[in-house]
Structure to design on (704 residues):
């Protein structure tokens, strides 16, 4: 590889690998909510990015409130912000499902259009309230700076934080889906709606809560995002395609697949970025993922579900 | 009045609608607007090409492509590359460090024209390329996707990613493609100044003519046997497959037709807007085009073309007056269309026509209507208006 020695390659790999890890956290956080909404329910939520933005703005508002009313407690605003972001996104998602999405379950492609319209409206509302320019909250001191791993390698605290949140959320979702009664109801609704209804599961209610939970997770992702970049009205929308690809590549309805594909896409992109330009790395990754989806339309990890 | 109604109920209905649409584009609009606005309308008509492609691909074929911008862009870039090369003569670019290549290449320290730009010096090659390249790309992706039975929402996501990949690629390869600014700053087509008012009229008429040709061609395909098979594939793919049809071939064919229509639209856009940029390729435009098609009517070529023109014209006026409200209004229109009348404007027209036939039509017009009952989902005057409205407007999957 073009004039690099082996040890240089190893350092580059490690550096880009660490950068890839933080991208992995971002992808995973984004994809978790979608893995539930698209993976479990088969609903294409084009407004998913806007729920992330909603969470970011909620966090920004909380930070601003703390700054002006309780400056002494500023370092501790984050837990409050995360909970609030979740609740706001959950609530809006709940209303969206009740008012719109549930009427369109029989027409999945129309859901796509309708949620895109909702995303458009949300973006414009954000723009009217917070302006088109990016806003950002000051990170609390324990999130600033970075940890030195070796002479060449640094890991910024905010990246580490995002990754920790991503992993924590994944564990919580896994427990909810596979170890809790709620998850059993969700999975049975996915696998056989009529039968689930017959054994007394209120599938309409399950749908509503599942959709809202997915949106809530996007809200948490948005909250975590404020530590790594400024929030603009279109902040979430730009990750939409990546997120969909992560979920499709991993195989809908497979949480393990989502984690694995988020990891591989993030690492591939980040390592390629060093050797070719960032945009070409992105294009190449997209094309490879599209190629894999063509070869395996059902995704890498799949559950056998009776259609 | 009764005569018109009788004709509207009969077989010649589509021809009448086409005639009205053609008269609107060819006579009314050129009389009502000056060259500047006509040029804007021409750009919107360029989008109508994509909308009618989507009617065939999505409305009739059930394949929702969120990547039509890719083909629109291929056509537009092919046309713009030719025009840019014509504008970049060594005399006109004498100030550059390498005269004779497009200005953005010079800014990006390119010293020679890339080999794949060379053929675009020829107008006939450009015309062939802007039809054949999109068709070939559509064939390759259609073949790969449909043979692997990628359909429904997965098809939508893959085409969406294609649009994203293409626009990122164009932005990234600034020296070869003009980057985020796109290809701009050209004035002549084969030595003919396209910036003058008379040229605007001529190009507008060419655009309308091509659009009408595409609509007639599309209607011909849809009403042929192939069109019937296509509808069957949309509604019951496996049953058609078991009947011995090669389902994929029909899908690939329609996807290619839609791609070629989009490319023609892209070329007309580049010619009238006198620029092409990655935002004409990416996700934003691709999804917007689907929206225009849905609002106009996803089952009607004329409806979709009219819808594209109407919405974009409304946007032109309203987004100036209420820049913030327009986006919200646009979203709300889309929501109402999706929820309440999925057949779009074309569905509203059908409802109005049937209402008029019931209340003002003579016995003859009813006879004509009954003769073509197979084409209509309506029928039954005994039902209440609302029941029928609901069935006509929303009675689809």
């Amino acid at each position: 590889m073009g004039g690099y020695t082996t040890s240089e390659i190893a350092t580059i790999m490690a550096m880009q690998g660490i950068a890839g890890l933080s991208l992995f956290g971002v992808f995973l956080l984004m994809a978790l909510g979608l893995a539930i909404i698209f993976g479990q329910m088969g609903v294409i939520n084009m407004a998913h990015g806007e729920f992330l933005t909603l969470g970011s703005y909620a966090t920004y508002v909380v930070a601003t409130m703390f700054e002006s009313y309780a400056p002494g407690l500023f370092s501790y605003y984050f837990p409050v912000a995360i909970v609030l972001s979740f609740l706001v996104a959950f609530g809006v998602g709940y209303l969206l499902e009740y008012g719109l999405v549930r009427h369109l379950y029989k027409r999945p492609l129309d859901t796509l259009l309708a949620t895109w319209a909702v995303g458009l409206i949300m973006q414009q509302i954000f723009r009217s309230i917070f302006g088109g320019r990016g806003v950002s909250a000051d990170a609390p001191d324990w999130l600033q700076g970075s940890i030195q791993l070796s002479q060449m390698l640094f890991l910024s605290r905010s990246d580490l934080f995002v990754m920790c949140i991503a992993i924590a959320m994944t564990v919580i979702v896994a427990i909810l889906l596979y170890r809790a009664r709620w998850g059993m109801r969700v999975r049975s609704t996915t696998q056989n709606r009529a039968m689930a209804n017959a054994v007394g599961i209120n599938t309409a209610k399950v749908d509503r809560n599942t959709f809202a939970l997915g949106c809530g997770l996007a809200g948490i992702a948005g909250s975590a995002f404020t530590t790594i970049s400024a929030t603009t009205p279109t902040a979430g929308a730009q990750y939409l395609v990546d997120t969909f690809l992560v979920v499709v590549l991993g195989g809908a309805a497979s949480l393990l697949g989502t984690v694995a594909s988020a990891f591989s896409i993030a690492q591939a992109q980040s390592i390629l970025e060093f050797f070719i330009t960032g945009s070409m790395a992105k294009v190449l990754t997209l094309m490879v993922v599209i190629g894999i989806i063509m070869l395996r339309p059902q995704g890498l990890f799949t559950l056998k579900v009776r259609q | 009045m009764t005569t018109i109604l009788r004709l509207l109920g009969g077989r010649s209905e589509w021809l009448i609608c086409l005639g009205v649409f053609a008269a609107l584009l060819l006579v009314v609009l050129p009389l009502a607007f000056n060259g500047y606005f006509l040029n804007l309308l021409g750009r919107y008509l360029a989008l109508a090409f994509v909308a009618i492609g989507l009617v065939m691909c999505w409305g009739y074929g059930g394949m929702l492509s969120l990547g039509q911008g890719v083909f629109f862009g291929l056509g537009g870039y092919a046309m713009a590359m030719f025009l840019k090369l014509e504008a970049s003569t060594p005399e006109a670019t004498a100030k550059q460090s390498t005269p004779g290549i497009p200005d953005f290449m010079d800014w990006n320290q390119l010293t020679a024209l890339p080999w794949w730009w060379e053929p675009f010096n020829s107008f006939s090659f450009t015309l062939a390329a802007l039809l054949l390249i999109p068709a070939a790309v559509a064939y390759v992706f259609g073949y790969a996707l449909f043979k692997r039975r990628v359909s429904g929402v997965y098809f939508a996501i893959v085409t969406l990613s294609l649009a994203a990949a293409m626009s990122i690629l164009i932005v990234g390869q600034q020296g070869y493609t003009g980057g985020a600014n796109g290809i701009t700053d050209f004035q002549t087509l084969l030595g003919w100044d396209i910036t003058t008012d008379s040229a605007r009229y001529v190009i507008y008429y060419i655009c309308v003519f091509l659009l009408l040709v595409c609509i007639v061609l599309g209607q011909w395909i849809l009403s042929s046997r192939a069109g019937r098979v296509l509808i069957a594939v949309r509604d019951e793919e496996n049953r058609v497959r078991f009947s011995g049809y090669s389902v994929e071939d029909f899908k690939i064919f329609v996807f290619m037709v839609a791609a070629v229509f989009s490319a023609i639209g892209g070329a007309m856009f580049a010619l009238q807007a006198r620029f092409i940029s990655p935002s004409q390729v990416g996700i934003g435009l691709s999804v917007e085009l689907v929206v225009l098609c849905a609002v106009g009517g996803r089952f009607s070529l004329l409806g979709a073309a009219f819808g594209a023109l109407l919405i974009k014209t409304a946007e032109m006026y309203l987004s100036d007056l209420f820049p913030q409200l327009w986006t919200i209004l646009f979203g709300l229109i889309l929501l109402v269309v999706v929820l309440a009348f999925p057949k779009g404007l074309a569905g509203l027209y059908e409802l109005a026509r049937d209402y008029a036939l019931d209340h003002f039509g003579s016995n003859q017009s009813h006879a004509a209507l009954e003769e073509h009952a197979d084409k209509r989902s309506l029928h039954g005057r005994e039902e209440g208006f609302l029941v029928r409205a609901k069935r006509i407007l929303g009675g689809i999957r």
Notes: Residues 6-295 of chain A form a domain with the ABC transporter involved in vitamin B12 uptake, BtuC fold (CATH 1.10.3470). DSSP finds eleven helices and two strands in chain A.
